[in-house]
Structures are given as structure tokens and as C-alpha cells.
Amino acid sequence: MAEVATRSAERTLALLAVVCDRGRITLSDAARRTELSPSTALRLLRTLEMSGFVRRDESGEYVPGGRIFQLGLRALSEDSLVDLTWPAMGRLVAQTGESVYLSVRGQPGTATYIATLEGTRAVRHRSWMGASIPLEGSAAGLVLSGAPLPDGYAVVEGGVQTDSTAVAVPIRSDGRILAAISIVAPSFRCTPGAIADWGALLQAETSELFAVTSTSAGAAVGHSGRVAE
């Protein structure tokens, strides 16, 4: 019985490794690379999918899921994504006076806020650390979902809260989206000019992070505080 359980675990881990190594893969290719029958591979991939370790995209291919990114973020605390982005977040708050948030994929269909720096204005956007929001309808969600960004950043007004607007950009590593950095502010201050300026500032800061994070396999949550959209 123990041998059967061990063999099943080995097969499951082999499939997970193939999905992570390839970035995206079809069922048939995954089965071939792990020397499993398609039916066995499908059964094990469904188990991984239900637990959030892999997910199927619109094309039907399997890609790493939010759970694997969460574990990766927690595994390498010495090279924390939060530690890497913290100086950039501080500069963004200083430049804009608005609140800045760092988010990653959470459970299927959601994003989770893992760090925040509140703005310096008397009226500012506030929420709680660790909050989850739907990917659909939020600026961070658009970024984490890999949606096209014609201007280089995503903008959503009233997505999670009716009186706030969020501007977000991705943080990438080896071509993959690891996280999103967002500026969130009361909508009455979000003029087209302000949004364009914030988008440019976010892109400038994250362009410096790309080179740093490309040498890191992951990061861990290293700060706490209040977060927002």
C-alpha cells in the first residue's frame, strides 16, 4: 500500500515539475514527458488543479497555478519579493502621495495583497493585509491574468470599491508575471493626467525590478500592514 502511495506521489510531482518547467503544456505532451497514460495524467492533473497547484487556461493547456506561486514566494525568504519591491513602493508613495500595494495570485480566480504602503494624503485608500479580491474586474487582476496592456498598465475605476481607482503594472521574472504593483486612490483625484503619470512611474520602477527578479526563483512575504485594491 505504501509503495502505491509513493508511486502516485512521484507521478504527481513529476507532472507538476513538467508544468512548471514548461510554463504551459498540453495533456498529451505532459503524459508523454512523464511516461504516463493520458488517462492517468489527466486524473493527476485534475487533482493538482483542484488544489490550486496548476490551472487550465483558455486554450486548455495546463499552467502553474496560484498555489505554487504562493509556496514559491514563501520558500525563499532571504530573497523576498516584498524586500525587493519595498524601496520602489516607498518611492512611489513619496512621488504620488497615494497608497501602493503588492499583490500575487491567490486561490483560483483571486488575487491576494501581500504588502502595502499607505499614502500620505489625509483622504487615502485603506484596507487590510492579506485581503483577497477577484481577478476579474480589478486592475491587479488584469495584470496577474496576463491581459494585454496597450499603455503598459491597467486602469480600473470602481472595480472593487465604487469610489476608488487602481493603476497596476506587472513584475516579471524570466518572462512570467510574479506579482502586480498598484497605485490605488480615491477616484475624485484620478484625472487622466494623473493616471498617465502614475502609469509611467510604475513602469519606470518595475523596469528596474525586472533585472533583479529575473535572478530569483521566488520570494517570501516579509512585511505586513494594511492593504487595498
Report on the structure:
With 229 residues, the chain is α+β, with helices and mostly antiparallel strands. It folds into two domains: 2-64, Winged helix-like DNA-binding domain superfamily/Winged helix DNA-binding domain (Arc Repressor Mutant, subunit A), CATH 1.10.10; 72-213, Beta-Lactamase. It has seven helices and eight strands. It has helices at residues 2-22, 27-34, 38-50, 66-75, 81-96, 139-144, 192-213, and strands at 54-56, 62-64, 99-105, 110-117, 132-134, 154-157, 164-173, 176-186. It has a six-stranded antiparallel β-sheet. A two-stranded antiparallel sheet has the order 1-2. Helix 1 (2-22) packs across helix 3 (38-50), helix 2 crosses helix 3 and helix 5 (81-96) packs antiparallel against helix 7 (192-213). It is elongated.
Total number of beta strands: 8
Derived from helix and strand composition plus strand pairing, the structural class reads alpha+beta
The CATH topology of the largest domain comes to Beta-Lactamase
Proportion of residues in helical segments: 40-55%
**Rg from Cα:** 19 Å
Low-confidence stretches: 213-229
Q: Categorize the overall geometry.
A: elongated
Q: What's the structural domain tally?
A: 2
Can you write the helix and strand succession as a string? HHHEEHHEEEHEEEH
Q: Could you describe the largest sheet, including whether it forms a barrel?
A: 6 strands, antiparallel
CATH superfamily of the largest domain: GAF domain
Instruction: Please state the second-level CATH architecture of the largest domain.
Output: 2-Layer Sandwich
Question: How much of the polypeptide forms β-strand, as a percent range?
Answer: 15-25%
What's the N-to-C terminus distance? 48 Å
Average pLDDT, all residues: 82
Overall CATH class of the largest domain: Alpha Beta
